[in-house]
């Protein structure tokens, strides 16, 4: 399988995943709006609120970088340890059980 084939297969997988996610979101929204008093304006306001949690209104929910409590340097949001001094970072996700 060459590079183009791998890319095409990955792209097809991503499209299928996106369509399934979109369908699930739509089903969840229809259930919520039918069974609660939540209005579409409430949903849109919540989307904007979550979008802004990382400080940027860009239509994405990205986690902000985290500052090392020991050396104060910035690390990726998912980093478990500081890449500069190896201190464990407080915002790191807990390790998965083996
Ligand atoms: Zn550090």
Give the helix/strand layout:
Layout: H1 3-35, H2 40-52, E1 66-67, E2 74-75
The structure holds zinc ion.
What tags apply to this protein structure?
4% strand, two-stranded antiparallel ribbon, binds zinc ion, mainly alpha, flat, single chain, 2 strands, 2 domains, 98 residues
Explain the overall architecture:
This protein has 98 residues and is mainly α. The protein folds into 2 domains: 3-53; 63-92. It has helices at 3-35, 40-52, and strands spanning 66-67, 74-75. A hairpin with a 6-residue loop joins strand 1 (66-67) and strand 2 (74-75). The longest helix has 33 residues, at 3-35. Bound molecules: zinc ion. Zinc ion binds next to loops.
Short synopsis of the structure:
By secondary structure, this protein is mainly alpha-helical. Helix content is 47%, strand content 4%.
| Unreliable sequence segments | none
Shape: flat
- Termini Cα gap: 33 Å
The proportion of residues forming helix, as a percent range, comes to: 40-55%
Which class best fits the helix and strand makeup? mainly alpha
User: How many strands, what sense, and barrel or not for the largest sheet?
Assistant: 2 strands, antiparallel
Q: Radius of gyration, Cα only, in angstroms? A: 19 Å
Mean pLDDT figure: 88
How many DSSP E strands?
2
The figure for the number of domains is 2
What is the H-and-E element order?
Answer: HHEE
Fraction in beta strands: under 5%
């Amino acid at each position: 399988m060459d590079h183009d084939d791998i890319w095409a297969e990955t792209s097809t997988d991503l499209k299928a995943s996106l369509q399934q996610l979109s369908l699930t979101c739509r089903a969840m929204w229809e259930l919520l709006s039918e069974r609660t008093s939540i209005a579409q304006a409430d949903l849109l306001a919540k989307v904007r609120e979550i979008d802004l949690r990382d400080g940027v209104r860009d239509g994405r929910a990205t986690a902000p970088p985290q500052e090392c409590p020991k050396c104060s340097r910035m690390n990726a949001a998912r980093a478990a340890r500081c890449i500069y001094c190896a201190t464990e970072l407080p915002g790191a996700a807990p390790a998965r059980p083996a």
